[in-house]
């Protein structure tokens, strides 16, 4: 399977975590920004949902989407504020962590702003689904995803099953 065809078949779901967007107090701009970024990679978002900053609701949304998604992107709730509980909800759902993804996003973010070090976002795997926590701002979410995107199609391929190609020799 070529790189382009494997990317086109990635099923992506987005969960925006925001009390104000969930209540209708403000319009979400982060979900659409992520969808636009994905379109530049010829990937359509399968589902997008907005949930409040509630640990159980975030975890429930993740669990519901895992069976239907290769990649779930959460946006928001990764900072230091008391209501920022997305990493805790994600930890409750994932079976294995993928710390290199979160580390790479923070490292890339630090080249833009020192506030990137305040992100507590994580990445991990449940079953065959990769889950990545992104910042809540449209700019921060897209920059973070862009920083790790080159590895995402390969990660999805690894989760789907054995991968053996001359460019990426992987022991499975």
Notes on the protein architecture:
The chain is an alpha/beta fold. It has one domain: Molybdenum Cofactor Biosythetic Enzyme, Chain A. It is 42% helix and 20% strand. The strands form two sheets. It has a six-stranded mixed β-sheet with strand order 2-1-3-6-5-4, with helices on both faces. It has a two-stranded antiparallel ribbon with strand order 7-8. It is globular and about 45 Å long. The N terminus is likely disordered.
- Total of helices: 8
User: Helix fraction?
Assistant: 40-55%
Total count of strands = 8
The domain tally reads 1
Head-to-tail CA distance between termini: 18 Å
Radius of gyration: 15 Å
Keywords for this entry:
8 helices; single chain; alpha/beta; two-stranded antiparallel ribbon; 20% strand; 8 strands
Q: Secondary-structure map with pairings?
A:
Layout: H1 3-8, E1 12-17, H2 19-22, H3 30-40, E2 45-51, H4 55-66, E3 71-75, H5 86-93, E4 96-97, H6 99-110, E5 123-126, E6 129-134, H7 138-148, H8 152-160, E7 164-165, E8 168-169
Parallel strand pairs: 1-2, 1-3, 3-6
Antiparallel strand pairs: 4-5, 5-6, 7-8
Helix pairs in contact: 3-7, 4-5, 6-7
């Amino acid at each position: 399977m070529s790189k382009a065809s494997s990317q086109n078949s990635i099923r992506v779901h987005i969960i925006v975590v925001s009390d104000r967007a969930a209540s209708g107090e403000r319009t979400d701009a982060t979900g659409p920004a992520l969808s636009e970024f994905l379109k530049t990679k010829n990937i359509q978002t399968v589902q997008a949902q907005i949930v409040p900053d509630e640990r159980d609701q975030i975890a429930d949304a993740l669990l519901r989407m895992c069976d239907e998604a290769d990649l779930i992107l959460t946006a928001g709730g990764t900072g230091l504020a008391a209501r920022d509980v997305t990493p805790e909800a994600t930890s409750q759902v994932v079976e294995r962590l993928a710390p290199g993804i979160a580390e790479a996003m923070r490292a890339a973010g630090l080249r833009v702003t020192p506030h990137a070090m305040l992100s507590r976002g994580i990445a991990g795997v449940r079953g065959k689904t990769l889950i990545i926590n992104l910042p809540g701002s449209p700019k921060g979410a897209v920059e973070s995803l862009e920083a790790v995107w080159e590895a995402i199609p390969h990660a999805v391929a690894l989760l789907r099953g054995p991968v053996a190609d001359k460019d990426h020799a992987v022991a499975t």
